[in-house]
Specification:
globular, alpha+beta, single chain, about 350 residues, 12 helices, seven-stranded antiparallel sheet
């Protein structure tokens, strides 16, 4: 059959668009349905710009969320579901109500209704946001930015502060810093812990630190005894703050050989001294903060630095703080005390 010239050109454009969309957003072995491809194309189009060619190699390392998952990424999915017309509370806990909302959304988009928020579901949820936007989708975006250490109000309004944070996050990942949160920006912010940050080589020190921060923040609220068994088998009977920081580093991609093995908080500082990684001032996000003088003795406490403010105060995520993983804000390392111990210093991940 001979095709007209105009029809040939249209088909060529369709093939190229499908190829580019599939290369960025679809798993290599998957054959998307018509609905999946259409939603992926719409989401990708929202971020096209001067840097689009650079970003075509960005892999959408979306986290896989299912019933039982917890953390900021779950809250993000819940807000995006609500924004898409499937109301559910953003409590950070993936329970039966969230599963029902996910399945309802998947059915509405002709996706496999398995109740799992994977790459295709994330792509369909990732609405493009610009300055002036309002609502729960904006709130979800703001939560992700705050998780990275950006200081802004989570007020559901896409204002100047949110725009600045979006551009900073885009620049950090080699994306076009246009301040518009489209599918590529969402994928970069939601990159699964342990995977290289999109647009960055896996050995980039700043990328490693961002993964540590994202991993730690994603655990806030996990409590003993059952929740914290990920970090330590019998956490209900053991002070598990050291187990938590070690788990966080490993999960974020720090080689096991470069992670402290002790369950004694102050000995984490001693390990840092012996390996040339301990410093008393100038913390950075991703560092371990040590409360109590480094020593092979019990007592003290450790946590993960997740933000450093201009006045020198820090935010930390600590395991076994009130028997759960807790976010602690605006700590002054010069005067604060935890369990009667002052901050003695920080341990940096090797090479970061």
């Amino acid at each position: 059959m001979i095709l007209s010239r105009s029809l040939s050109r249209a088909l060529s454009r369709a093939v190229v668009t499908a190829a580019l969309t599939g290369a960025v957003l679809a798993p290599a072995a998957a054959v998307p349905s018509f609905a999946d491809t259409a939603s992926a194309s719409r989401a990708t189009a929202g971020t096209a710009g001067p840097g689009a060619a650079r970003a075509t190699t960005v892999a959408a390392s979306w986290p896989a969320l299912r019933q039982g998952s917890r953390g900021v990424d779950v809250s993000t999915a819940q807000d995006l579901l609500a924004a898409a017309g499937h109301p559910v509370g953003a409590d950070g806990a993936f329970g039966p109500a969230t599963t029902r909302a996910v399945k309802g959304f998947q059915k509405s988009r002709r996706l496999t209704a398995d109740g799992v928020v994977g790459p295709r579901t994330w792509t369909a949820l990732a609405v493009t946001l610009r300055p002036g936007a309002e609502g729960r989708a904006v709130k979800a975006l703001q939560r992700q930015l705050v998780q990275e250490g950006h200081r802004l109000a989570v007020d559901s309004v896409f204002g100047a502060g949110t725009g600045s944070a979006v551009r900073a996050a885009q620049r950090a990942r080699g994306l076009s810093a246009d301040g518009v949160a489209g599918a590529r920006t969402w994928a970069a912010l939601l990159a699964a812990p342990g995977s290289p940050a999109p647009g960055r080589p896996s050995g980039d020190p700043s990328a490693l630190r961002k993964r540590i921060v994202a991993t730690a923040r994603g655990q806030v609220g996990v409590a003993e005894p059952s929740g914290c068994r990920t970090y330590l088998r019998d956490c209900a009977r053991t002070a598990w703050c050291a187990a938590f920081v070690s788990w966080t580093w490993r999960k974020a991609g720090v080689p096991s050989a470069a992670v402290p093995k002790t369950l004694v908080a102050r000995e984490v500082g001693l390990w840092g001294q012996r390996n040339g990684l301990f410093h008393r001032t100038h913390p950075k996000p991703g560092d371990i903060v040590v409360w109590g003088a480094p020593a092979a003795r019990t007592g003290g406490h450790v946590g993960i630095v997740v933000a450093v403010h201009a006045d020198g105060r820090v935010d930390t995520v600590d395991g076994n703080y009130g028997d759960k993983v807790a976010l602690r804000k605006n700590i002054d390392p010069r005067t604060a005390r935890t369990r009667s111990h002052a901050v003695s210093g920080y341990v940096s991940p090797r090479g970061a």
